[in-house]
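Note to self: user wants both folds in one dump. Writing first protein now.
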Amino acid sequence: MDRVNLEFIARRRLETGITLQDMAESLGFKNASTYLKYEKGEYDFKANHLPVLARKLKCELRDLFQCLILLI
């Protein structure tokens, strides 16, 4: 099972020097505070956000995910 790797997204945003407001505007949000709620996991990124994130963060789409191994 995969889930969005919020730590990677936050770290990569900082590494690339992209502001919260820049990310917010790229995803169609008016405020940086709205974007931050997504980055912190309060809201879930939607499928249509992921390609935009990958382009902005200059990474592959698969980099936005972390694999969770479930042992039963």
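First done. Writing the second protein, which came from a different request thread.
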Amino acid sequence: MPPTATPATLPENARRTPPVWLVTLLVCAGQFLVVLDVSVVNVALPSMRAGLGLSELGLQWVVNAYVITFAGFMLLGGRVADLFGRKRIFVVGLTLFTVASLAGGLAQEPWQLIAARAVQGIGAAVLSPATLTILTTAFPAGPARTRAIATWTAVGAGGGAVGGLVGGVLTEYLTWRWVLLINVPVGALVLAGALLWLTESRRGEGRRLDVPGALLVTAGLALVAYGIVQTESDGWSSASALLPLAAGLLVLLVFVAVEARTKAPLMPLTLFRLRSVYAANGAMVLAGAAMFSMWYFLSLYVQNVLGYTPLQAGLSFIPHSLSIVLGSKIAPRLMNRAGAKTLAVAGALVSAAGMFWQGQMDADGTYLGTLLGPGVLMAFGAGLTATPIASIATSGAAVSDQGLVSGLINTSRQMGGALGLSILSTVAATRIAADHGGRAAMADGYGLAFQVGTVILLASVLLMVLALPRRPEDAHHD
């Protein structure tokens, strides 16, 4: 789900502004690139592995390096934009993202690609919050702003949905490098437009930046993910696994201590006194851990086991993409009828059913018999779940905290996804190695990842049932 923020007011000293349709086009193009890069690499992963000699587990860092830095710096990015100017930070973030895309596309070693993806994530974390705040300053409050935000949201959802198809086309007809290089001309074009036509705005408040907090949470999450990965090759009792796990947990504890003492915390701990905030964020971490990895394992399964080409893989995910968009679009209407908590639970159960079904895959699977049905269920349930959880998270927060809480729920989803990918990839790799490789072993390993994902998602459902408030007035009660 793309990050959200509370509407900002128009600057009193606003200069002559460009047409609002042009502003909308520019910021939506920036948001499209950011969201697209979460999913576009999935179909290209087997080609990346062959081209750079990436290991089975090393593949996940092509995804996780982006997601972890994106999540870790997202909240900081929003504050930087408010303090130093939305246009300036939009330009800085887009420049960083574009340059990192070029570096990744030209990478000759696995570490170069992973490092470029990490820098891409930082650029995305700076760029994404600025896109929405620029948009809200361009429109006065009312129906016009609502339509603009709806367009921004749809573009973000579309970027994630078409990532598989775009990645498949580029990998099939050009090379895997173009899933990154395509950002360079598009980014340069949007950058030129931003420099020419966007106007500057900022809140002008003298707020401090919690840079230590952003660095600590990102480093802690990366260390924990690395430790989980090491358990596959060295075991849970090995120093190579235990040391980074312990170090990561220690760094996260230091992060909590820093947040408790700093005057301008990245993540104000007082917000977690609200039942709506801690329950919704906990549920989103678990749901994200299960759902985020769906595209990753499906991409590997259809290409490594079923022998699909990258283009065939991208085309095969079109029904999945349409399903998640459909679920996201009808979720607000269903919330009005059934309630946010009921819809969140129902959506997660639908997705869990699809995930369990997908976990039965084998080496002789077919598109109609193995992929279509469970894939549509997983994606549709994911689309239904995200909106009501976000709605519950913000229901108990003060108006002044709405944007921050929206950023927290998005950060929780990304962080859950990064840790979930590390856990499920390790589970799959362990099973594949135990079965001595081969198509059947890979199908078994990927299937086990979906089965474990089902358990994680059911844990999320249990947390929703027990902890999510049913009514807004219950959001403050423990």
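Dump finished. Worth passing along: The chain is about 75% helix and 0% strand.
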